[in-house]
Amino acid sequence: MRGPAWALVPIGSIVVVVFAIRYASGTADWLTWLALIAVPPLAAAALGWAIRGARPVFALGAVPLFVIAWASKTSLAGEACGALLSALSCVTLGVLLASVTPASWLKLGIVLMAGADTWLVVSDILQAPNATLVAAHPPAGLPQLQSVLFGSISFGYGDLFVAALLGAVLAATPRLETRAAVLVLLVASAFDVLFAAVNELPATVPVALVVIGLEVVSAGRRRSTRAGATPRPAR
What we know:
By secondary structure, the protein is mainly alpha-helical. The protein is 68% helix and 3% strand. Helix 4 crosses helix 7 (157-169) and helix 8 (174-191) crosses helix 9 (205-228). The protein is globular, with a radius of gyration of 19 Å.
């Protein structure tokens, strides 16, 4: 099952979805149902298996998160629980994708996803499909898990997914993973200053910038190591 072709999943998850919503009626409703059905068990899998320190019994934590997200969906507490469920489900998906995709290819996939996201935002193609997806409601007042709402902030499932992918790629090196998480937070905070001039930004870009930065630093260290290596005398 392992191979570089899986690196196309990140860019496909945004481009295919956007154009499907744009040109195929009912796609947003179908994605709403898919998220409602798939996100809670994927979040449970993260708590019980995928995250560092996971225990099978922790999977039960997804139940109160879903209940609060449903019962208080218009409150900040309910929106926070819904966002946490979505984030945890992305962790599981990220771990699964990282297990079958070479790390170098998956990093490239993250950068390509951010590039496609930027193109869709700048060309004004993303806005209408995204509004349609955010407006889709499941019946019986069930929580909307196909996108993330927290107060006045709205962002897509893919924005969490790309961050989870980077975490999964770096999970084998916890120190580097922690540094990357801090860098993403700092870069995203600086990137958000642009909201003073625009109403919508591609939130995948800060993650991609950190990937590029880490690769540049790593390449520089490799060149420095090779340059400093002492050649062995010939026998």
